[in-house]
Amino acid sequence: MKKNSIKVGLIQQASSHNTGENLDRIIPEIKRLASMGAELITLQELHNSIYFCQAEDPSIFDLAETIPGESTEILSRVAANNKVVIVSSLFEKRAPGLYHNTAVVFDSDGSIAGKYRKMHIPDDPAYYEKFYFTQGDIGFEPIQTSVGKLGILVCWDQWYPEAARLMALKGAEILIYPTAIGWEHTDAEEEKARQYDAWFTIQRGHAIANGLPLVAINRCGFEPDWTGNTKGITFWGQSFVCGPQGEILFKADSTSSNGFLVEISKNRTEEVRRMWPFFRDRRIDAYGEITKRYID
Amino acid sequence: MKKNSIKVGLIQQASSHNTGENLDRIIPEIKRLASMGAELITLQELHNSIYFCQAEDPSIFDLAETIPGESTEILSRVAANNKVVIVSSLFEKRAPGLYHNTAVVFDSDGSIAGKYRKMHIPDDPAYYEKFYFTQGDIGFEPIQTSVGKLGILVCWDQWYPEAARLMALKGAEILIYPTAIGWEHTDAEEEKARQYDAWFTIQRGHAIANGLPLVAINRCGFEPDWTGNTKGITFWGQSFVCGPQGEILFKADSTSSNGFLVEISKNRTEEVRRMWPFFRDRRIDAYGEITKRYID
Fold first, then answer.
1. First and final CA of chain B: distance in angstroms?
2. pLDDT beneath 70: ranges in chain A
3. Chain B residue numbers touching A194 (CB-CB < 8 A)
4. Which residues of A fall within a CB distance of 8 Å from B120?
5. pTM for the structure as a whole
6. Which of A73, A132, A136, B25 is the most exposed place for a label (fewest CB within 10 A)?
7. ipTM (interface predicted TM)
8. CATH of A5-280, one of 3.60.110.10, 3.30.420.40, 2.30.29.150, 3.40.50.11480
């Protein structure tokens, strides 16, 4: 009989400057979640470090590493030892002066199942990612693993329906967004509430549009701006999982630095897409201009 | 000084079989909302009749009319008399055997500013639209009016991020969805809640993805299936308006057959898109395959 659910672990944490310290927090959580039955473990964006894009600092490039490299070797062992698929998020050094924000997926035997290089790169106050990351060149390709085909997208990709759609059209069975988003302290409370709610809502929208379950793993904790330029970011946590109608299956609070285990039905996509067959009615004859910057 | 807000009227109503009766309910509401300052009035999908797609019945085609035709003449006069822009939704007879679900926009001088033929046509139990409507062939073209460029989309279009995106790329300043959606009585209460919430959420998602305000006008009331095939539909009302971060500006309840007036800021799009410049970072080099049915 075909197994019809999957147990997914989400690790939402406050992170420090020190990679070893971060891994020492992550690895025991992976072990704990695996022992509870997790088959797939998802980590937040750039989990090995602080969210260093708060400021433009050339010395930060020292944190980048090759893929494969030291971190992938460690995580590969952790995946194999715990027999879990792991979605990680690393600062990839591809060549001198060429860096990416890259999700690496390990299969439960420890092999690298594939990687995704963040396609949409933000640049706004306190999120200076265009300084650090070259935009991805692998495209929107789901990664085949022993637990299914994973549509990994990263943070800023969250705002682009095109990204989720392409992953779905290529057979992704679940959308996964490692992310690092929070509040800048100068924003008013109502603005903060709108920002968080927009983030939550648009991702649920991608799940609905594509009839897919979705996992978003966000960091938590306050991180000061070491250059003193801004007043720092409070990452808003609230990692969540929703089903293919956008229905909330799990939602963490904004501060818990913790791992969570959520069971996702694999049948719901088929059920929901039969009822709402959006793919059947797409007007592919009329979408061509989506590849334009603006139509004027 | 450039005016930076627009007052929008939404007319959410229970409808009957009788076109005259329906217009007799709609026209006084247009007058009332215009007298309160409405500059743009939005009507629900197929407001002149019941939602006849509950069953496939060839005699229903008698309800269709040409554009221009009787209804457009009436609504044109109402627009001119009340100096308001009106978004209407009609059953268009284009040629024998060729019918569309067509939104017609009247400018405040009574002229027809443009029309939009519903592009995505559903067909699922109690929504047998493929029997009645040929899919639109005008494409996703916003309609220029004296109150701005309107991105009109209709009902099933609500589920397609591509439709909203194309309207936005073509300069729409507001997204408007006349719609007729409700609950079939055999669905469980939790399923009904999920359906409504998915509908509400995905549209807010389109507003967020495109940094545009959005108006959804849905019918209310119970309509029996005159063929006895199903147990009828309870249209869920809850017409709403949200801003460019998806923030709720107005939400009607599920049963009020009424007109509502909502003020929308026209500055917010510029403000929000400066803060979240999604259009800047779209990976138009990597979206080409969106024009495929499926990528396998």
1. 54
2. 1-3
3. 245-247
4. 281-283
5. 0.97
6. A73
7. 0.97
8. 3.60.110.10
